[in-house]
Amino acid sequence: MLTDFKNQITPIDFNVVKEKIQATGVPSIGNGTIREIVKVANEIQQASGQRYIRMEMGVPGLAPPEVGINGEIEALKNGVASKYPMLEGILPLKKEASRFIKMFMDVDLPEACCIPTVGSMQGGYATFMILGNMDAQKDTLLFLDPGFPVQKQQLDVLGQKYEAFDVYNHRGDKLEAKLEAYCSRGNIAGIIYSNPNNPSWICLNDDELKIIAKIADKYGVIVIEDLAYFAMDFRKDLSIPGKAPFQPTIAKYTKNYILLISSSKAFSYAGQRVGLLAISPDVYEGRYSRLKTRFGNDKFGYTLIYKILYSFSSGTSHSAQYGLAAMLKAANDGDFNFVDSVRVYGERAVAIKALFKKAGFEIVYSRDLDDPLGDGFYFTVCFPGMTGAELVERLLYYGISAIALSGTGSDYEGMRVCMSQVGKDEFEVLGARLEQFGNDYKLS
């Protein structure tokens, strides 16, 4: 618990915030998980009657597309709610997923290799489980951090090992030597990263993806590419189906890949918990003797679908699959520009960054190699003289909730800012709260 507060006359009643933080029982709320921060902010908000500026959770702040809703409604009217979905996914979704990957990534992938999951979270969990049981020697996943904290939590739940390094300091040509140092040990089963990156918003380029592919092929490592923010590098127009530029992907450079494609952010469909696993045909058709020992079948694709995903949830929501299929079809046909529908996140980022900078905050991950950082769903900030945990806890007293970078595997102190839930109507309040914080804590 922090004691050196410069000012106890804060936008949210000081004693209310202090009481609710202490009641959590969390040793350091500033290092709390996303859900712990959500919980305490909700409780303070309810007790104080003061609205928080919510920046801790990557919740889409836009309405879901009508085409998806209508697709679900039609499916429900046709009676799908009474029927279990096929484990491998409905044919319309598999068809449109394959088309989508071709149209927006320029990658040919058979329909059979496109499998719906209960969000990318389930897709990642299933992938981690199978990779951890394919080779007795390869028992560790390697994270190119910073990253989504819950993925490491999933591995903790599974009892599987992982290692990580902050990729920001190893961009470009430096990346190969760093990956070589880890993968040459022979224990790395998979490499995972998000692109664009959560939370730094850096974007690995094609040269870096080629390096990752080279190392993966050399050591028989499977690359897991988390595309939670598909086509949301707004510095390039990735929105035209079948025309370059395309979403950069490892799938162009190696056959050892698994893609996690989410509908939550790019399609504002988070509540329906539907995503896609897109698996290289070589991996999907691969046979691994240890899988047979562990799960009773040596085929990767079969084991993933009929052993692991089956045991998790017996399929993905039937109607949600039809909703996603409808959105993908509309995007593939050029009738729905899903990128334009979320471009507002980048516009918010420009405005919100300016408010933080004006109050004396600094951007942590400020460059993307030789280019300025793009503006998108997240950015990162620090405040001089404070750790990330201190910053997060102190800002709770100012009605602002976020998470510390320490939980993301970052080498830097600071916090993640998500602008998805911050509307224009809150900019004035946010600016005033940040200004007071800056005045209270500026270094003399």
UniProtKB/TrEMBL annotation:
Its cofactor is pyridoxal 5'-phosphate. Keywords: Aminotransferase, Pyridoxal phosphate, Transferase. The keyword Transferase applies. The keyword Thylakoid does not apply. Its EC number is 2.6.1.1. Residues 62-424 form the Aminotransferase class I/classII large domain. It holds the Pfam family Aminotran_1_2. InterPro entries: Aminotransferase_I/II_large, AspAT/PAT-like, PyrdxlP-dep_Trfase, PyrdxlP-dep_Trfase_major. One of its GO terms (molecular function) is L-aspartate:2-oxoglutarate aminotransferase activity. One of its GO terms (biological process) is amino acid metabolic process. Belongs to the class-I pyridoxal-phosphate-dependent aminotransferase family. This is AspC1. The lineage of its organism: Bacteria, Pseudomonadati, Thermodesulfobacteriota, Desulfobacteria, Desulfobacterales.
